[in-house]
Amino acid sequence: MKRINVGLIGAGTVGKGVIRILKERKAMLREKLGVEIFLKRACDKEAGAFNSLNLPREMITRRAEDIISDPQIDIVVELIGGINPAKDLIRDSLKSGKYVVTANKALLSDCGAELFALAKAKDKSIYFEASVCAGVPVIKSIREGLVANRFNSVYGIVNGTSNYILSRMSQERISFAEALKEAKKKGYAEKDPSLDINGVDSAHKLVLLAYLAFGRFISLGEVFIEGISKISSADIEYAKDMDLEIKLLAIAKKQGSQLEVRVHPTLIPREHPLASISGVDNAIYLSCDLVGNLLFHGPGAGQLSAASAVVSDLVDLSKDIKAGMFRSSINVIPDRGIVSIKKIDEIESRYYIRVMVLDKPGVLATISGVLGRHNISIASVSQKERRRAEFVPIVMITHEAREKDMRMASEKINKLPQARGGLVAIRIEEL
Fold it and tell me: Is the dihedral of CA 114, 120, 123, 129 positive or negative?
């Protein structure tokens, strides 16, 4: 029976999970594949990283070069994360004639075009299923199961930390700060959660999803990114009153000859499937021309969920190696109907607006006048509560308006003496 030798670099949470699966499911995988996936060597810079894994000493190294230079290793698994030295490790692995599996969405969103081109030139592949939605097989589904489809849009809840925070704020009526503290306590948020709550992690994943669906590699700088830190529990409750739910969405969709790519808090109808995705779960909602709409939903993080996706990639590559064939991991073609990326200023949507104003006659007319002068019409308006306080919240829903106009109107309203605390504007997406 043919043996496929694997070298693993990075024995963190996911790396340990991969080692566990390869050890515990070795016989099952061999029976299913007719080939043995054998972990030949594992590397981590921390000497004690393998203490709980019961690996033979000769299998362990602290030098990645020992894996990359080993002519018997067929596949290198990179699980250290970050840009450097991960980029060099993957590049050197490809140049050494090895296939690569990675979960490194930050690296691929930044350097993917270069690395995929190198892989193709070397007749090798880079597989990266675990980089988006962990164990949910959305990348393989787009790449293979939906290969005959053209895509209209991709909507994703792709960051478990942010989704957990918004879910807890909605379910328990607690503040953002309280929900974030709880997420950290449960291990759902990093000590520094900025990449998650600021939307950057979601944007990394959106770059990859947009490339797979539309065949265009977008730089991170072309993605509009807005996080969830300004969302209040009051906004969530007011949204519920209107049968809307707030989610941090990663959005890529065609609008005529342009492609919109953006990450921001979004109000969606509560009856839509994405509105029910709670906790640390992830979901991708695809709109395709042949099969229509599809929802992929499952754990977006976790040791064994992500490790399962890495092993799935190892299985696919092992099949290719066994068959003696080269199959590019990226078989996308550019959507030639897309000419450019749509600038955020030109994007149009309906808006939810909340502003704290003086509880005096004529204030609403002043606010409405500013909006009207910026081509923003109001669909509905309500004063959510009356109290003895000097300032009270007014909530509005607008008709479709241009982002640039909304930004200019917000700046004018924030300067009014009758307003306090800054206008909150959340985009509404018609799914």
Answer: positive
Q: Are strands 348-358 and 401-402 parallel, antiparallel or unpaired?
A: antiparallel
Residue position matching structure tokens 């290719």: 320
Rounded CA separation 139/131 (Å): 9
- Give the mean pLDDT of 384-394: 75
DSSP label of 128: -
For position 334, what pLDDT does the model report? 87
Distance between start and end Cα atoms, the chain: 50
Q: What CA–CA distance (Å, rounded) separates 359 from 364? A: 9
Residue type, 294: L
CA distance 388 to 213: 53
Q: Give per-residue pLDDT as tens, 186-204.
A: 999 999 999 999 999 999 9
Answer left, alpha or beta for residue 10, where phi above 0 means left and psi between -120 and 50 means alpha.
left
**Strand blocks (E) in 123-207:** 126-127, 151-157
Look up residue 222 and give its DSSP letter.
G
In this structure, the number of other CB atoms found within 10 A of the CB of residue 146 comes to 19
How far is residue 315's CA from residue 30's CA, in Å, rounded to a whole number? Answer: 10
DSSP secondary structure letter of residue 142: I
Phi, psi of 406 (to 5 degrees): -65, -40
Please indicate whether residue 23 is annotated as part of the active site.
no
pLDDT digits (tens, 9 = 90+) for 333-348: 889 999 999 999 999 9
The Cβ-side half-sphere exposure at 166, using a 13 Å CA radius, reads 33
Kindly name the residue from 105, 205, 254, 342 that is annotated as catalytic: 205
Instruction: Give the type of residue at 34.
Output: G
CA angle centred on 261, ends 259 and 267, rounded to 5°: 115
CA-based angle 213:218:221, to the nearest 5? 140
For the chain, the average pLDDT equals: 95
Do the beta carbons of residue 88 and residue 76 sit within 8 Å? no
Helix/strand/coil for 287: strand
